[in-house]
Amino acid sequence: MTLLKKKDEKKTEQEKVEERREEVLAAGRKFKYPLQWTKHRIVINTILIAFVVFAMITIGGWLALYRLGMTDELLFRVTKILPVPVATVDAENVRFSDYLMFFRSSIISIERQSGSQFDKTSAEEVRTKYKRSALSEAEAYTYALKLAKELGISVSDEEIATEFYRHLKIGGIDRSEEGFIKIIEDNFGLTKNEYERMLYLTLIKAKVEASIDVKANEIAEKVETILKDNGNNYQSAVEQLGDAIIYEETGGLVGSKNIDGGRASEAIKLEPGESSGRFISMNGDGYYFVKLISKTEAEVNFVSIKVPFTEFDKRFNTLSEENKIDEFIEIKIED
User: Fold this and answer.
1) What per-residue confidence (pLDDT) applies to 4?
2) Are strands 299-308 and 246-249 parallel, antiparallel or unpaired?
3) Are strands 286-295 and 299-308 parallel, antiparallel or unpaired?
4) Between β-strands 279-280 and 254-255, what pairing exists: parallel, antiparallel or unpaired?
5) pLDDT for 34
6) How many CB atoms lie within 10 A of CB 52?
7) Helix (H/G/I), strand (E/B), else coil: 329
8) Which sign does the torsion angle of CA 124, 126, 131, 136 carry?
9) How many CB atoms lie within 10 A of CB 199?
10) Cβ contact 274:291 at 8 Å
């Protein structure tokens, strides 16, 4: 003990300070390195947990959409953010959100109008039927989008706004925009943006159909020539073109805002005996011509000719026959 004390006394003050400093640092390292190791483990564990949670959400979402066939609002909102496909049409992805939008707008309307009149089995059959219809509809619109891209066809925001306003006034009711949005939310479960998406798809498909349907355009030109040469005599067009066109009469006065593809709203603009030029029906399935017979301030009596579009459906059906439509969900329709 005396020897150690003597050795210690021989040390300079600087040496003593350095020695003490090293003792303190050595003691600190015992806590520093385990803490660094702990932080490292925390980071790794956090990443692993996040990965597991993400995997569980992904697998759960995949099962809900592709195996269980769930169609609830949460999944609808998720598919709007994540553009996952429900099918492919000619190698073009069909948005799951479009399929759910068509299905939900149809089934919500049916359920709210019909109430609980369906038993469990019948209700499931109805849902399956509308799922099949919604998927086919989404596939057709996706094909129209593909053709539109190839043909350089587009729809402007102004065209969508005009169509929205036209729908707002359907039936001759002077609705406010807020009131109309409330109607589509209550009856179809759609927001304004979702309704505008439906209008966009309808408009783009109508433009595509009009562009590719050479036969319909040729028939429409023949109708124009016949009406011009025969003083707007619609019967002459019927006699000459037969089944190539569809002729209809109102048989009396109907509301000028009648839901009839836009014919009544065009007729109210005319004078008796006057014929409109060709125009595309509101649902985009063909050309219309209308001739006004008589009218009042709010009603019209007219005759009409329709030239249906057929080319798009032919091409779309060919894709199915050639197995160029792949569906990622199974919808079984019972015979």
Assistant:
1) 45
2) antiparallel
3) antiparallel
4) unpaired
5) 56
6) 10
7) coil
8) positive
9) 19
10) yes
Q: What is the mean pLDDT of residues 303-312?
A: 96
Q: Which of 289, 239, 284, 238 is nearest to 266 (CA)?
A: 289
Separation in Å, CA 54 to CA 49, 57, 61, 319: 9, 5, 10, 37
Q: What is the 3-state secondary structure (H, E, C) of 60-95?
A: HHHHHHHHCCCCCHHHHHHHHHCCCEEEEECCEEEE
- pLDDT > 90 fraction of the chain, expressed in percent and rounded: 54
Residue 288, SS3 per DSSP = strand
End-to-end alpha carbon distance in the chain: 104
State the amino acid at position 116 in one-letter form.
S
For 92, the token pair is 């073009």
Q: Is the pTM of this model over 0.90?
A: no
Q: Round to whole Å and give the CA distance between 223 and 275.
A: 11
Which residue, chain included where needed, has tokens 């949005």?
Answer: 181
Residue 19 has pLDDT above 80, yes or no: no
Identity of the residue numbered 190? L
Q: Give one word for 191, left, alpha or beta, with left for phi > 0 and alpha for psi -120 to 50.
A: beta
Residues 6+ apart with CB under 8 A from 298: 172, 255, 256
